[in-house]
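The protein record passed on below.

***
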Amino acid sequence: MTTRIFERSVAPGDDPPRRLHPDRGLPDRVFRGVLRGGGGLVLAIMLLVGGFLTYRAWQALSVAKWDFVTTEA
């Protein structure tokens, strides 16, 4: 039985930099796109609801002014 010893030709600190993440395949890219699209859709809906509530609050405050704080219904 023969044992071979391989010596490194490069010092341990002289290794070239490597990529930390492998290339992603088509399913991963599709999944990421679906997630981003869903996140964008949720954000758009939340912005629309916030805009609607702000608009309605502005209308209500323009009619009642600040009397709604001191007036009892």
